[in-house]
């Protein structure tokens, strides 16, 4: 494990050397970082980490994005997620897998009351529609590992929420 300063990520290129696979789940919230900080973390840091990973020999990059990611979206969150997907794909990995989970079900250390309410509601909805609106973070993690262990199917593969559920159960 290497601790890096994301504001000076280029100085930590050695931490990205010699890895065949890169996993990226980096992200923040607009509420926590502000709009500019959100863009810096969710797009700029991720894109730079992908470039360093590729330069260090990474062949397969696995990116956690978001359901609805679209570089043309009017919504900042979805636009930034779509932009970073495009930037990561342009890096030129042998394989790139993008996971687009819906609402992540998890326990957080910090207090997010509205998110907690939404998670409680979606937990109930998930009993009827288990793959429609949410996914446990453990399922996303299992799907990320499983996609690396499976033979490659093309240069870029995008997994939507339902596929994440299916792969996470495999």
TrEMBL record:
Residues crossing the lipid bilayer are none
Single GO cellular component term: cytoplasm
Biological process annotations from GO:
import into nucleus
Q: Which domain of life is it from?
A: Eukaryota
Q: Which residues form the NAD(P)-binding domain?
A: 4-151
Gene3D superfamilies this protein is in?
NAD(P)-binding Rossmann-like Domain
The entry lists its GO molecular-function terms as:
catalytic activity
Q: Which InterPro entries match?
A: NAD(P)-bd_dom (IPR016040), NAD(P)-bd_dom_sf (IPR036291)
Assembly and partners are described as:
Monomer. Forms homodimers during oxidative stress. Interacts (via N-terminus) with elongation factor EEF1A1 (via middle-region); the interaction is direct and competes with EEF1A1 binding to guanyl-nucleotide exchange factor EEF1B2, thereby inhibiting GDP for GTP exchange and reactivation of EEF1A1. Interacts with nuclear transport receptors XPO4, IPO5/RANBP5, IPO7, IPO9 and KPNB1 as well as GCN1L1/GCN1 and LRPPRC probably through their HEAT repeats. Binds NCOA5/CIA.
Q: What is this protein called?
A: Protein HTATIP2
Q: Which gene encodes it?
A: Htatip2
